[in-house]
Automatic annotation (TrEMBL):
This is A-kinase anchor protein 14. Pfam families: AKAP28. InterPro entries: AKAP, AKAP_28.
Length: 199
């Protein structure tokens, strides 16, 4: 118990060198540590917000987000059109990588869903590798972007952007380093399956 001055023999835990245990002599110590941790977490969130820029003509506020540092609209200025433009800019950053220079993509807006005070914008990006033998590719790879805009957060708060590759459930964030291998793995798997089909 936190307020107990006596230590029970049943509360003794073995201490590990790699883990720091905290003991609290009073409720004030406990509350002080809790408040300090909350302030540190808030400062970490502020540090990860990205650089804020304003466009006075269109009243558009954007923040640099993710590994490539592309501009994304904030919660207060996000809509389906500028979201699509931001997704396309992110895909151009992927396409600029040497491993994906022969790939092509097409982005489309899919839907807008409302959940409580959050709007979720969905986009689909089709990636393919056209070749002279197959200018219209037989196998494509889909990437789905989900952008959550909360109306509880301040208008200058960044959008929550995640993406998922088809056939997978793991949601990637923009801060993760994109690996072209992720697209190649899906393309290779679908190509192998496509070759087994008899038409």
């Amino acid at each position: 118990m936190i307020l107990c001055n006596r230590r029970s023999i049943y509360n003794i835990r073995p201490e590990h060198n790699d883990h720091v245990y905290h003991s609290y002599r009073s409720t004030t110590d406990f509350i002080g540590r809790y408040v300090n941790q909350a302030v540190l977490n808030a400062l970490n969130i502020i540090n990860n917000l990205g650089d804020l820029t304003f466009d006075n003509e269109s009243d558009l506020a954007t923040r640099k987000l993710g590994y490539f540092g592309n501009q994304w609209p904030t919660c207060g200025s996000f809509n389906a059109q500028n979201g699509l433009e931001s997704v396309i800019n992110e895909m151009k950053s992927w396409n600029a990588l040497p491993a994906l220079k022969d790939w092509m993509f097409h982005a489309t807006f899919i839907s807008l869903q409302y959940k409580n005070s959050v709007e979720i914008y969905s986009y689909q990006i089709l990636w393919s590798v056209p070749t002279p033998a197959y200018p219209e590719p037989q196998v494509t790879v889909s990437v789905y972007f989900y952008i959550a805009i909360s109306h509880i957060y301040p208008p200058l708060f960044p959008a929550d952007v995640t993406y998922i590759f088809e056939g997978q459930q793991f949601a990637h964030s923009l801060n993760m380093i994109f690996r072209p291998k992720w697209l190649y793995d899906i393309l290779d798997m679908k190509t192998i399956m496509f070759k087994t089909f008899d038409f």
